Amino acid sequence: MRSKRYGAALDIGTSRIEGFLVDLDSRKTVAFVSLPNRQLVYGSDVISRLNVALNARHGLKRLHASFTETVDDALGSLISRSEVSTHLIREIMCVGNAALFHLAYSLSPDRLARAPFESSAPRRMPRKRAKDIGITVCPDARFEFLGGLGGFVGSDALAVIIATGIYASGVVQLVIDLGSNGEVIMGHKKRMLVASTSAGPAFEGWRIRCGMPAVRGAIESVTRRGDRDLQFRTIGNVRPRGLCGSALIDIMKYLLDTRRLDATGRLTSGRYRIAGSLYITQEDIRELQLAKAAIQAAIALLRKKFRQDIADVFITGRFGSRLSAKNAQAIGIIPADIDLRRVHFLDHGAAEGARAIMCSAKISHIARRISRKIVHVKLHGEHDFQDAFVSAMSFR
Prior knowledge:
alpha/beta; 11 helices; Nucleotidyltransferase, domain 5; six-stranded mixed sheet; 3 domains; 33% helix
């Protein structure tokens, strides 16, 4: 009788790593993990890490080591949660942005860090043993990090396309991946456009005075109760420690409604106290404005190119279903003309897609086929992107 075989499907995010341990025969998930990315010590955004890789002493080597340690952390957690023997894990499938792809394989990201921001790395790297990459947990498993789609658009975008099923849709669909390296995808089975925009880490709680990732203790939603009272819900129903991205969007909408924040993003006071020692500052508002404007402008540019109505919107990212679609639309992340009943949330879109690709030869073939058809829109080369971005900074 053949022994069980398992695989780890991992989404390597800028701030966190998420993934599933899957029985490769039954395709059933046996464990899930979400942990901080150890590369955070080198910066909360991709550009900071590229600078370290290219300019710091042994920078590329150190960032590669942080990658393998992060993967080891995830694998160790999946094993302890499932009690699956290490030697039974035969596959490790990773997806992530283009910078992380380079760091995983110790490839210099020099061309990615300068105009025209295109990688010289191959779209597909040969499968290796995990130990050849430097991974010490499950060293004999086959390792693969899927290549990107162009520029900073990584294989996480391809995985999200698979998870949402837009590659088989007969109508135009929009996917918004809210993360540090925000990605916007628009298309259907005949045509797909994708763009990467530097939304910054605000949606994930970084660079926000009282911000934090969507983990236990984070305020995940804020609702209005009267003119001055706010009601909070925290992850884990425990004492609030900070605010994650979904709550920050709720707070921004509340401040606009109560005229504590004007259309330009100016707070009427230097900072606004939310609860206890938690507050939001003018600097926080500006970080959120930059993030939402980057996403809003990218959507506007893709819509201009597509010239067709959007039927459905999918939102994925670290805070997924915790987001209020109504509030996200009010501040401009979701286009104003979208029926909110057609907005869908996918908590772990990239990890879900990676799992599908790992578990099915058919889906893997589809992913590789459609990756050659997707058109990468380089926003920095679009002459009207800057105008769209400046316009999107406003809350009018």
